[in-house]
């Protein structure tokens, strides 16, 4: 049986994945991309509500315990992951062809949509994913009482399993594995979930800026 602490870290992630499934079903039912433009905002909003409901369960987020040097390291790692992310896109490094998200209407960018997309990716997704992948799953593989497992003491098995799963959660599976390993390294090194959250936020936020600047909507 999973504890309340476990469910607190699982349910925000499941909520996010549920909306991905909903979008797919609605698309198959004939809803156009234009009609589903704001579904991402609803998805992010739902995740925020679940996170807020369980907020007191996240003891690892209770205080900011990231010294300036560690924060700078996390930022640098986030930038490096971004550079790798947009360069690890060869055919054998990807799964399928993502539809992406095009926020333009008649050739003009819908800036409110862009703002919501970048804010969700940089502020909400990193918290939700790091709580699930690194704080919960990586440690739970080693012990059902995952909160008792020190980040620096996780096994090689849990590192490999969660990195591979995190990678194949994304269309760019190899980039995803590399990102997962980088975020794990930060968690193990700094022993606080705020480090991979910060790196993840930098990666996602700058990726959003790059996508808008280059028009590479498939990366969304």
From TrEMBL:
Classification via InterPro entries: Prenyl_protease-related, Rce1/LyrA-like_dom
Keywords: Hydrolase, Membrane, Protease, Transmembrane, Transmembrane helix
Signal peptide from the UniProt entry: none
One BP annotation, GO: CAAX-box protein maturation
Domain (CAAX prenyl protease 2/Lysostaphin resistance protein A-like): residue spans on this chain: 114-205
Keyword NADP in record: no
Transmembrane regions listed in the UniProt entry: 6-26, 38-56, 68-88, 108-128, 159-186, 193-213
One Pfam family in the UniProt entry: Rce1-like
Taxonomic superkingdom: Bacteria
GO molecular function annotations of the record: endopeptidase activity
Full protein name: CAAX prenyl protease-related protein
């Amino acid at each position: 049986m999973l504890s309340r602490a476990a469910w607190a870290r699982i349910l925000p992630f499941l909520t996010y994945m549920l909306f991905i499934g909903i979008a797919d079903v609605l698309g198959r039912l004939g809803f156009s991309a234009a009609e589903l433009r704001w579904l991402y905002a609803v998805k992010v909003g739902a995740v925020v509500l679940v996170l807020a409901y369980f907020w007191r369960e996240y003891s690892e987020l209770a205080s900011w315990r990231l010294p300036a040097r560690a924060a700078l390291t996390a930022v640098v790692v986030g930038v490096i992951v971004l550079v790798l992310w947009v360069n690890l896109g060869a055919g054998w490094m990807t799964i399928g062809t993502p539809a992406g998200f095009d926020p333009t209407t008649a050739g003009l960018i819908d800036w409110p949509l862009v703002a919501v997309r970048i804010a969700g990716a940089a502020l909400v997704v990193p918290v939700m994913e790091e709580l699930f992948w690194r704080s919960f799953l990586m440690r739970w593989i080693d012990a059902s009482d995952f909160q008792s497992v020190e980040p620096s003491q996780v096994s090689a098995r849990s590192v490999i399993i969660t990195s591979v799963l995190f990678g194949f959660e994304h269309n760019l599976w190899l980039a995803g594995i590399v990102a997962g390993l980088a975020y794990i390294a930060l968690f193990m090194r700094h022993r606080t979930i705020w480090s991979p959250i910060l790196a993840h936020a930098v990666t996602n936020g700058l990726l959003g800026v790059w996508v808008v600047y280059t028009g590479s909507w498939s990366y969304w």
